[in-house]
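Q: Is it fine to ask for two folds in a single conversation?
A: Yes, each is treated on its own. Send the first.
Q: Here.
A: Result:
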Amino acid sequence: MRTSWPRWLSTGLLFSAMSVLAVAGLSCVGSSPVVQPLGPKDPAVLSWNQPLTIQWNQAIDDFSVQVTPAAKTRSSVGPGGRIGYVYLDQVDGTTEYHVIVTDAVGANGAHLLEPATFTVEMARRPQLQSSEGLQREMDDRIRLQWDRPMQQVGYRVVTDDTLVLPSLPFGGRNAGEVDAADPTVVWINPGPLPQESDVPIRIETAVTQDGAPIAAPLTIAVSTPSPLTVGLDSPDDNGWTPVDGQLAFVFSEPVRDQTAAEEWIHWDPSISGEYEWQDDQTLVFKPESLPGAQKITAAVSSGMDGPRSQRGGFLDQDAAFQFWTAPDKTIDVDLTHQSMTLYEGDQPVRTLRVATGVRGADTPVGQFRVQYKLAVTRFVGINTVSRTRYDIPNVHWVMPFMGDYTIHGAYWRSAFGSRGSNGCVSLSDADAKIVYDWSPPGTLINIHD
């Protein structure tokens, strides 16, 4: 027995079946499935040179697209025909495109029923936020602020506006360091740069984390501070530095990292002592002891490993200072007792009789230094008291200490221990020879009543 369905019910079932077929990508009964794109999500965010990938509901042989704003494109179908690729030649300054799929032909001959539009957001080229007035940080790095998270930056230092120093891209000293906390910041450290200059640095490559490169190399200017200078202030006693003296290095600007002073300064011969900052520009050296009667050299290191100003300046070249220390000896002349005592340090080693200036031709009182020595010379002059002229040849063991005033031997005088000279400190030739041999230039002479 055959069941008979109402006519309206049969018609309803037919319409429902056709709806199901349409949703499933099928046309009417007996037709091929329609071609439909299934993705990507809208908008599609692409890295640099990454194609738009379109997934299809079935294998296709070909498809065509239009792009707004206008851009050169090429398209291809992947293996298996279920994926299509659209490559866009990006126009600088444009990051958003609308890709309209106008047609597609399935492997079974079916066509796209209606156009499909995809919004594409392309990677943007990086832009340096500031390229003027760049300066070194305290750690000598230079901060480059970009508008995009960066992957790598390569640079070279330009000299003479034409020559570019060799670099080692992405791995040598001319590769920038992306900040770990903020990838929009890249640090570069070009090493020593000419001071008091605007130094050109050429950014040759800069790539964002999504692969977008700068459109063209760019040049920035890094302002460098003026060089640091230093002078040595040593106690001076008639051209000699006392062995118990302190020395001060005076810098032209306040100095950073003051704890490294011992690493900057080198002594020849080696001298032990303590460094103490009097202020942020004056470094005082307190030696344990200075060798007497010796030439000493103090050298201050130049370059970025030497002293640095707070603005980053450094010495362009090593600063070397030389000075002579005074002998640690004293010739003490007692005018009251007409005696001379020789001291090594504070220890007396010998006492001799002398004849100093008579009244009216007094020997000067004070502290002096042996300026130089003459084994023999001629004395010619006028006696201060009698106003008579004298001319004495072959005067031995002469040591000037102030103008024409000297310590010397007096072979023409037989008595010592009382005043008798024209202002000099005279001794017997034998005693004068002892003093002459014992006293190097610079020996302190202390004359007192």
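Q: Second one now.
A: Result:
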Amino acid sequence: MTDRRFFLDSNILMYAFGANHPLQAPCKRLLDLIGEGEIQVATNTEVLQEILYRFFSIHRKDLAYQLYDSMVVLCWSIFPVTLADTNRAKELLSKNKDIDVRDAIHIACMLNNNIETIISADHHFDKVKEIERADPLDFPFD
């Protein structure tokens, strides 16, 4: 088990439980490692909202509930999105043109909670100097 703590992006669950995709198996393995306690992850309430939104929108309500409940159990913390987070996200957006609002919220939440690394398949996180991105294809992490 690593002592490092990570922020878990919603796309890991989207790939693991979505349509057949080359990232499906690596993301499922990653979730297994989290479930086994090998990797410590946190997330925020916005990620939970993204999970509900995505799977409700494709009429997979039961899976939305299951994944939501699993995230609550798997994560050592579910951070609320606070005014401090949205203020920091606004600052990040003003100097990082390669991120969208939702990702800026995640980054701000990470930074405000002393988490430096996001586990995500989204390469645009690589362009944000304030954080690191851990690719699900690169597991296991050191």
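Q: Anything structural to flag on that second result?
A: Two points. The beta strands are 5-8, 40-44, 77-79, 117-119, 132-134. Residues 61-74 form the longest helix (14 residues).
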